[in-house]
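Case study.
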Amino acid sequence: MPALRPVVFIGGILVLVLAATMAIPALVELWLEADHAPEYLPCVAVPAFLGCAAILASRGGPMKLGLREAYLLTTGLWVVLPLTAALPFMWTVPNLSLTDAYFEAVSGLTATGATVITGLDHLPPGVLLWRSMLQWVGGIGIVVMAIAVLPLLKVGGMQLMSRESSDTSDKILARPRELATWLLSIYLSLTLACAIAYGLAGMGGFDALNHAMTTVSTAGFSTRDASLGSFSAAAQWVSVVFMLAGAVPFLLYIQVVRGTWGFVPWSQIPPMLGVVVVGGLLLAWSAVLAGHDVMDAVRHGIFSVTSIITTTGYASYDWQSWGPFAAAMALVLMFCGGCTGSTTGGVKIFRWQILIRRFRITTQELIRPHRVVAQVYQGRPVGPEVVQGVMVLVLLVGGVTALTTVLLAATGLDLVTAFSAAASTVTNVGPALGSIAGPAGNFGPLPDTAKWILSFAMLLGRLELLTVLVMLDPDFWRR
Amino acid sequence: MPALRPVVFIGGILVLVLAATMAIPALVELWLEADHAPEYLPCVAVPAFLGCAAILASRGGPMKLGLREAYLLTTGLWVVLPLTAALPFMWTVPNLSLTDAYFEAVSGLTATGATVITGLDHLPPGVLLWRSMLQWVGGIGIVVMAIAVLPLLKVGGMQLMSRESSDTSDKILARPRELATWLLSIYLSLTLACAIAYGLAGMGGFDALNHAMTTVSTAGFSTRDASLGSFSAAAQWVSVVFMLAGAVPFLLYIQVVRGTWGFVPWSQIPPMLGVVVVGGLLLAWSAVLAGHDVMDAVRHGIFSVTSIITTTGYASYDWQSWGPFAAAMALVLMFCGGCTGSTTGGVKIFRWQILIRRFRITTQELIRPHRVVAQVYQGRPVGPEVVQGVMVLVLLVGGVTALTTVLLAATGLDLVTAFSAAASTVTNVGPALGSIAGPAGNFGPLPDTAKWILSFAMLLGRLELLTVLVMLDPDFWRR
Ligand SMILES: [K+]
Ligand SMILES: [K+]
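After joint prediction, the assembly is written out as follows.
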């Protein structure tokens, strides 16, 4: 049985912190409208009380985190924090059930960006800001998790990204506080740059700030029902640039600013850009066939592919109207994902690189059985345990998507909606396909059961599945 | 460069043999109707001429088959033999293009059972028999390939089924001619028993014979547009029994008749029956919700699941009318497959067993990193190369299905038709979903490009993908 005390203690602290950040939307309400400010009082008070209780109940005693405690803490935080984050949705937005509020909060913190709310354009600014803040906080949480936690847990081949290497240049990464400061500075700088660029492209100040937060976190909530389709072509190109900036390994920025430091999986970037260009032009081609002007088609094509493979989920146009080829491409690209060590979800490009290389090695070994080919990734040896970890992860993504599809179909959703919603949440992209939850729709009309299934799928996907699934093993709970 | 001479020689012989078997439908035409008998003359003559030419051109010289020649021969046969088999479709059925004829022939020999022909009920008996014969011949070819060829090629973890084990009891398997005799006797006996059972269940002689041939080969062509839906409930239960009989490892029959002989992967059978019962009852439940009588629902449920997981593809009812849950279940079950060493397609149960066991071992290793768990299948050690082979195969099935879906969507097919047709051909099940090629429809209305893509998908699936894909590696063609 893993030790619960340190898990409850750290959880309590983070619930307190999250409750404190609710002061920001409350102040914005006071400043801009003042209509909803008082409603934030219970939203802060309830989790503050519960957080304090958790801290008091679990303080003292040994605080050492073992491997199983790390799994429990990681998963536990991503289940409990959305409960806290859901309160402003429940108590300041009219007609939002607990189910809807939890779905929206999970979608926020996991940076998925699927929404159940319609009429975003008329929502109070406090709630809009809270949605964006959740995604922004979630985004940096995802980067930290990918750089600091998952390589230790060795989930899905992430040990390849381990910082415990023999690199002598790896000094900064051994100092967690300095690493955290660097990551936060870079994240803040990117967000600020993005907001300014959006402003220059004609977005209003509030919209620019909100979209900057959900662009750099590749998360995808918008302040408009029509998402980036409400803004200028220039704003959409700004979005493309900063979605890609959020999809790049964050250690690369530290490396560029401070010189060489250890292992940065930069070789994911060229294939990512390649997919954006080739995929974007293919989509543009289908848009031209559907009657679009060539320049518009290229912009919407590049924008849509960037939005999907960085798992942001913004829409500049409902690409479903371009026909089945565009829809099929979008579905397949959902599984691509951006670079590991970034804010993106999905399978991620380094895993596809390892799989494709492995496939080539397999055919070579089949042709010449006595040949032995060593697999390498950016100079690091890729051992069989990494290859297997990658394969298990991709197979689990497929398996969980299939199971989720069947469960959603059992709630009455049609096949296209069920499969695409499953794929889009497991990969943390956001929008699905079909007439209900497509890029121009939202998840509001879905049955409650479907929303709970999808909330769980978002959590599973965000935690690279195995971080959650290990806990299904009875051994996890034994001594 | 692999040696072409032995490949052409063996190919020539088999083309000759296949041409000779066309005498059977010709004689049936003579005997029953005599209308179309003369049309078979060129169907026999053309391949006979070409086959003889191939044999004459390639005789003499060394005939040793290396590993690469084995790949080339296996794939080459499955590409060339359908060309021969397509001739009666082109030259005796009116309005069937080359594309349609080749699709039908590939679908026959690979035992897929997807059809482009409507109005089966009014087709001349010779062609109906030829369709069934192709599937029957294909079926035994598949068994021989799975027992004798694939374990040597080590494709998709099939080395686990190798007969080069240290089993001292493995004597018969070292004598290929005796093994072939046994397999053929068993196959004939099963077919005969099935035909008699169909007859007792009220089917006419010709229908009983044809369906027996396509049931035991889990192949799925029918003499009726409505498939098994045209026949009695008793006939449908007979079908369930013999589809399962064709989905069992054929070595098991030899073992039962002659005593213990080496490695029979029998442990696939209990999970297969489990899926039939559980899946069948779930489908029955959705049928009851759709308004069916309980007993009818159970029969159609069990029949449909058996038809799908044995990859037969018969329909007793259009299960799409039971709603999205039934459709999603059917789609997922397509990937299940029957037992290896049988006539079935799909991923096959032993691979799922290895993957599920491996998944459990992975979580155990994540929880306790210093534990080492050895994987075993029926007492045989499952080495990392087998695990990786299995994973590569399943990933390729997913990847090829996705790519095929995108290509089909580019020909204008809607998403549901494109994905389900891709899945159903790669797994050699047969019918797809949707309004065109669903269990009650057929592939006739699809564009020609789509039919060629699907023909290739059937071949890829039947040869467990890698047997074909190794040839894409430039190394295959080097010295
Ligand atoms: K997203
Ligand atoms: K079939």
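Observations recorded in class. Residues 1 and 475 of chain A are 9 Å apart (CA to CA). Chain A is about 65% helix and 0% strand. We will return to this complex in the next lecture.
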